[in-house]
Amino acid sequence: MKINRMLKVCFTFLMVLVAGCAKATDSASSAANISGINHVAGQAINSFSVNGYGGSLTGNSCCIMLPDKWRPGLKANITWESDPNANEPIPMKKKGFGYDEDAYAKHAEKYQQHSTVVDIPKYDQACGLTVHFLPCNQVKVTTSCYGYGVPEYPVKEPLNMKEPASCPVK
Known about the structure:
This protein has 170 residues and is an alpha+beta fold. It is built from 2 helices and 8 strands; from the N terminus they run αβββββαβββ. The strands form 2 sheets. The protein has a 4-stranded mixed sheet, with no helix packed on it. Strands 3-2-5-6 form a 4-stranded antiparallel sheet, with no helix packed on it.
């Protein structure tokens, strides 16, 4: 009698486990890395996010959920903070380590908050999402499986671009 009961419990547990796995493989979205590339000389991107998921300029961050199959109207809502004076030196503390708090606070007052919504270009396979930060607070995104700089990569803008004297009005 105990063996039958144990078999039923094991069978039920196995069915729940298999049902959970089946549902996971039927998922319409998959996790993908987020990365960013700053193309603007003298400006730093302090932080950014895409559709609420945080990204990194120092490599890949995990993760953003992207549909397994691209569909028209797929958007990336991008928010970011930039430091337009990234090359401006900030004095260090006279004693101890780190920056002088008052000088750092004055520098940080110049940080700028930005946001935009852009189309995610058509893809057959999403190999992560890369955000390219361009002059005039413009961005481009790609899901390309190629790396920046190779001929097949869709974003061709160079690094270290200078901000123009005036930007087009949106």
